[in-house]
Design brief:
Layout lengths: L1 H8 L3 H10 L1 H15 L4 H30 L5 H44 L19 H33 L1 H18 L3 H31 L6 E5 H15 L4 E6 L4 E5 H17 L6 E9 L2 E8 L21 H6 L6 H11 L3 E7 L3 E9 L20
Parallel strand pairs: 2-4
Antiparallel strand pairs: 1-3, 4-5, 5-7, 6-7
Length: about 400
Amino acid sequence: MKGRSERKGARPVWMTVLMWVFFPWGLFDLMLSSVARRYKTDITTKTAIIETVAFAFLLLVFAVPVILIAALAPGMPHDALVRMIVVAALLFLGLVAAFAAMCTLTARRMLAPLKKMAERIEEITVEDMSARLDPVDTQDELDELSRRINTMLDGLQEAFDRQSNFISDASHELRTPISVIRGYSDLLSRWGKTDENVLTEAIDAIRTESANMKSIVEQLLYLAKLGSFRLRNAKFDLSETVRDIAEGYRLTSTDKTIACHADSGIEICADRGLTVELIRVIADNAIKYTPAGGTVDIRAAATPTGAEVTVADNGIGISEQDLPHIFDRFYRCDKARGRAEGSTGLGLAIAKSIAEMMGGNITAKSVLGSGSVFVINIPSAPASGDEKPRGAKGGKSDG
């Protein structure tokens, strides 16, 4: 009550009266906010009440002076004055009623899409987020609201799918290393403490599986976050970037030949960090499955829409049956060898997700026993420091 009286005291009564008399909009605004805040009813009713009262007020503003002038006119018979007042009152009530009906119908018609939106939104649940708002056949704010809600739902659906995939993939893939670690732990607990060979084998296995678990979790988290990344597009020299990547591999993969052929002056506008990660994932995969003495050739060339990076190797290759699935999550062409090589089966999934998020794509050709060729298409995008996130539909990987 104190706060209410203080608010009333902040504006003198005479000032409020003057505002209402000389500025009808002040009265209308006060009535609008008061009705909208205090009364819990539908917008159609509120709109009809507010508009009708405003219309009645305007009628009175014009009608009362006319009646007063007629009443004060000399020679005006009393009966005529009474009839005029009665007719004016009936006309006033009729106009107000007609206006109220018109306001109600108009508001109901204009706000009908909102009711449909509310009914449609009730169909959206955590178990089923596929429902979307129907297009609104109006060219106004309701149409914009409908489109923005659908866009928001698309983003929520993608985030929910990424979370579900992460939980499913993590629980599935971590089951094996956890079982191995537990098995060797039981072995050590029973009789491996005094057997040096068993102790060494168990420690090596636990260390290897722990590293695999760490790699799986890190790559799953990275893959889950890709859909919400904001691209930081900027112009950079792809030729120099590819040469730097190749030079780094020459220093670390000394048992293999790392060749690099990049056209000079390939300037593209893209997210440099993601571009480097994309090329490295493909190159890592090629180096991993190329035996000692083999060759990995990294090439870069300009295209009309951006650039193309090719990573070719003469390694073990991929069979015709496996090739369509290499971008699937956790797919390994050789399950046993893949795990021994430290493969999580997520590398190519990450690469495909990055490429699609940047608006590009990856294609692969391979012959079993003769090597593989991966072609990365990287489009050049408009420069922007705050690019909106794109949905990544990444598949799975062999690397």
